[in-house]
């Protein structure tokens, strides 16, 4: 299997997570990380209604960590409040037996995967594609920065982890920002500490590296770093270790991207370098301002359909593999009401192999979480496990039936074995105390 195919998705394996979570049937695992695993799941309804979603299911042992649970629910609350086409939508959350978040399912890839694929092929992401992706990302970030509570008070939300892994690009050509797990907001119910470095070190802003007060301009700098790397195909600040990386964020000389990629359109250097200014006051003050500067550049081909076509062409094999895994999901995962009314091979994908649902998250956005989770820890039970559980249930039912029969015989014989004491009420027997 090629690299592209391996990154697409893997089948579910044995685990202590059931094959269904609430009203969602798990179909295939997209990716896993130190805190959670992301699955493609299906929600079924009456009249053959089906919708694909992505479920971010936390590692079972974290369910008992009150601080983590509060942080996770905060992420869900914040993300669900942001309603914008360039932000991955949060649809549902549960903190019952399992802690999980339900998100839009995006058929596509992360920007990190797109850049890596181009680098391995000895090419770069076309400038028009890179700029369109960044404009979408910035518009989503601006919507998050402008988030207000029910009283109209700005919440002061700052993502603090803008990186290629958290920018998702669909085959529809739309890019979306995701993963608000470490976002800063003044209204978070869990304490968000300003004095701690949060985020991937190679995408920190200088203010983050110095643990200075959190502002939206931190996300602008991080977005500038992502755009620089997308245009050049090279890391900007990443070094051999964390200390050297932070030092580079603070002091290294940043070359204009055209010094590396000679084919960049005029004016792009100036926009990127302004976003990367180490003095926040000299930077774009908002993500929207950054996006507007990019939109004004004389670059042809910055249409969403061009981005979608590029993603589809780049990851064609991997996307086909993922569609096939979803199509071949076990029949037991399907709601009986929908399976009776629609053929299995056409319920999720249309004739072109494209999801009929508008729902959208991709695979690798969670693979960058620290640590690791094996697929066996949070995937669905195997057929062998299901059969063993069924047999245990049958044996348990048989034992209960035998015990019940014996008890019934004893109770039936009880009136002939003893007579009630004059001090006892009728039908009372010492053996039933």
Per-chain topology:
Blueprint: H1 3-6, E1 10-11, E2 20-21, E3 24-32, E4 36-44, E5 50-58, H2 66-81, E6 90-95, E7 99-104, E8 108-110, H3 111-120, H4 127-145, E9 167-170, E10 175-177, H5 206-209, H6 217-232, H7 242-251, H8 268-275, H9 287-295, H10 304-314, H11 316-327, H12 336-341, H13 375-378, H14 383-417
Antiparallel strand pairs: 1-3, 2-3, 3-4, 4-5, 5-7, 6-7, 8-9, 9-10
Helix pairs in contact: 4-6, 4-9, 6-8
Would you summarize the structure shown here?
By secondary structure, the protein is an alpha+beta fold. The chain has 14 helices and ten strands. The chain is globular.
Please report the number of helical segments: 14
CATH topology of the largest domain: Transferase(Phosphotransferase), domain 1
- By DSSP, the count of extended strands is 10
Helix content: 25-40%
Average pLDDT over all residues: 77
Euclidean distance between termini CA atoms:
68 Å
Radius of gyration equals 27 Å
What does this structure look like?
A hairpin with a 5-residue loop joins β4 and β5 (50-58). α4 packs antiparallel against α6, α4 (127-145) packs antiparallel against α9 and α6 (217-232) crosses α8 (268-275). The model is unreliable at 1-14, 188-192, 335-390 and 416-433 (pLDDT under 50). This protein has helices spanning 3-6, 66-81, 111-120, 127-145, 206-209, 217-232, 242-251, 268-275, 287-295, 304-314, 316-327, 336-341, 375-378, 383-417; strands spanning 10-11, 20-21, 24-32, 36-44, 50-58, 90-95, 99-104, 108-110, 167-170, 175-177. It folds into 3 domains: 3-107 and 316-381, Phosphorylase Kinase, domain 1 (2-Layer Sandwich), CATH 3.30.200; 109-307, Orthogonal Bundle (Transferase(Phosphotransferase), domain 1); 385-432, no CATH class. The protein starts with a helix and ends in a 16-residue tail after the last helix. With 433 residues, it is α+β, with helices and mostly antiparallel strands.
């Amino acid at each position: 299997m090629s690299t592209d195919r391996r990154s697409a998705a893997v089948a579910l394996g044995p685990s202590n997570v059931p094959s269904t979570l609430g009203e969602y049937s798990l179909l295939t695992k997209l990716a896993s990380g130190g805190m959670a695993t992301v699955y493609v799941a299906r929600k079924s309804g009456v009249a053959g209604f089906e919708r694909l979603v992505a479920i971010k299911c936390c590692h079972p042992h974290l369910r008992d960590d009150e601080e983590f649970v509060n942080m996770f629910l905060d992420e869900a609350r914040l993300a669900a409040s942001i309603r914008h086409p360039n932000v991955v939508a949060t649809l549902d959350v549960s903190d019952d037996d399992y802690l999980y978040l339900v998100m839009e399912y995006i058929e596509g890839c992360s920007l990190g995967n797109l850049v890596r694929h181009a680098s391995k092929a000895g090419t770069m992401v076309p400038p028009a594609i890179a700029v369109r992706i960044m404009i979408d990302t910035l518009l989503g970030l601006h919507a998050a920065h402008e988030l207000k509570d029910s009283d109209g008070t700005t919440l002061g939300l700052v993502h603090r982890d803008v990186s290629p892994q958290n920018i998702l690009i669909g085959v529809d050509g739309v890019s979306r920002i995701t993963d608000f797990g470490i976002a800063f907001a003044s209204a978070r119910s869990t304490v968000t500490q300003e004095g701690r470095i949060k985020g991937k070190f190679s995408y920190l802003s200088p203010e983050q590296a110095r643990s200075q007060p959190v502002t939206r301009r931190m996300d602008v700098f991080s977005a500038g770093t992502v755009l620089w790397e997308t245009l050049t195909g090279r890391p900007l600040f990443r070094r051999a270790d964390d200390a050297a990386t932070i030092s580079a964020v603070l002091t290294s000389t940043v070359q204009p991207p055209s010094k590396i990629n000679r084919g960049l359109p005029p004016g792009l250097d100036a926009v990127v370098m302004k976003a990367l200014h180490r003095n926040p006051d000299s930077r774009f003050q908002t993500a929207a301002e950054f996006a507007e500067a990019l939109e004004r550049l004389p670059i042809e081909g910055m249409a969403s359909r061009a981005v979608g076509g590029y993603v589809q062409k780049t990851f064609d094999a991997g996307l086909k593999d993922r569609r096939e895994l979803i199509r071949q999901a076990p029949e037991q995962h399907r709601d009986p009401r929908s399976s009776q009314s629609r053929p299995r091979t056409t319920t999720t994908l249309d004739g072109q192999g494209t999801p009929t649902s508008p729902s959208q998250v991709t695979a690798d956005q969670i693979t960058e979480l620290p640590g690791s989770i094996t697929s066996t820890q949070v995937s669905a039970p195997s057929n062998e496990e299901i059969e063993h559980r069924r047999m245990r249930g049958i044996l348990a039912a048989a034992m209960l039936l035998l015990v019940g029969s014996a008890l019934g015989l004893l109770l039936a014989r009880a009136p002939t074995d003893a007579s009630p004491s004059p001090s006892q009420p009728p039908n009372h027997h010492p053996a039933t105390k």
